[in-house]
């Protein structure tokens, strides 16, 4: 392929984002595993941190559908959906990485509402990619959420890494598919689909039972559409 001018830095990390990862490729890490990694200065793996920001609002959409609030995702440069976040720099912790990436991607002001360690939900290792993904979930007020959405338009990475900020539809329509289950049929970066599912249940925006129903509807649709 012709040299299209990627800097050595991008070329080096470009392999991490290749599409086609399977959920099973990501092994959940225990808190002991993570502690050991921290003691080793997070070596020998590459790390990335991503965060789900949400607000809670019980609402009847069009007076019909139970809506639980909104969670923030983004359309990424590579055409997949993901959470704000990115790769950890040398000398950073996963939490520092997340707060830096959020400033760059969504104009998040860490002095006002930084993510903290108790908002860490799960971490996963992809052995093939030698990559650890750290995932955090943060609740904000509706006002803060709307302000962050507006900020994204002025953030450094808008139009480069982040092509648009979106609200995940947290409701299901009468056919049991449109709304959240249909949203799951999109293409997601890394293990972002399973992070979304885990994050929404951890945030108590979905009960385990409602989530199981949504996953069944999504899987049924995928099976019948191929
Ligand atoms: O929201 C996400 N959840 C889980 N993994 C993600 C998400 N977004 C990107 N990834 C994965 O994380 C790795 C780092 O990608 P990312 O593009 O965020 O870093 P960068 O912005 O520093 O280049 C890639 O393997 C990518 O597939």
TrEMBL record:
The keyword DNA repair does not apply. Keywords: Hydrolase, Nucleotide metabolism, Nucleus, RNA-binding. It is an enzyme of class 3 (hydrolase). InterPro entries: NUDIX_hydrolase-like_dom_sf, NUDIX_hydrolase_CS, NUDIX_hydrolase_dom, NudT16. Its EC number is 3.6.1.64. Its cofactor is Co(2+). One of its GO terms (cellular component) is nucleolus. Pfam families: Nudt16-like (PF22327). One of its GO terms (molecular function) is phosphodiesterase decapping endonuclease activity. Gene3D superfamilies: Nucleoside Triphosphate Pyrophosphohydrolase. Residues 44-190 form the Nudix hydrolase domain. It is found in: Nucleus, Nucleolus; Nucleus, Nucleoplasm. Belongs to the Nudix hydrolase family. NUDT16 subfamily. This is U8 snoRNA-decapping enzyme. It comes from Elysia chlorotica. The lineage of its organism: Eukaryota, Metazoa, Spiralia, Lophotrochozoa, Mollusca.
């Amino acid at each position: 392929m012709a040299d299209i001018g990627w800097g050595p830095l991008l070329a080096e990390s470009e392999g991490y984002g290749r599409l086609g990862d399977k959920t099973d490729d990501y092994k959940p890490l225990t808190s002991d595993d993570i502690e050991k990694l921290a003691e080793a200065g997070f070596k020998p793996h590459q790390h990335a941190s991503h965060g789900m920001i949400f607000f809670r609002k019980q609402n009847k959409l069009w007076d019909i559908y139970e809506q639980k609030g909104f969670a923030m995702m983004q359309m990424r440069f590579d055409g997949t959906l993901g959470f704000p976040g990115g790769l950890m720099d040398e000398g950073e912790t996963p939490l520092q990485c997340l707060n830096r990436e959020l400033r760059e991607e969504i104009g998040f002001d860490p002095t006002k509402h930084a993510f903290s360690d108790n908002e860490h939900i799960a971490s996963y290792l992809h052995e093939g990619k030698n990559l650890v993904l750290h995932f955090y979930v943060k609740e904000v007020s509706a006002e803060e959420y709307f302000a962050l959405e507006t900020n994204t338009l002025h953030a450094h990475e808008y139009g480069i890494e982040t092509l648009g900020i979106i609200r995940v539809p947290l409701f299901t329509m009468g056919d049991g598919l449109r709304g959240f289950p249909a949203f799951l049929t999109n293409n997601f970066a890394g293990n972002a689909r399973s992070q979304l599912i885990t994050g929404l249940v951890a945030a108590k925006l979905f009960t385990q039972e409602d989530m199981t129903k949504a996953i069944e509807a999504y899987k049924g649709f995928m099976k019948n559409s191929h």
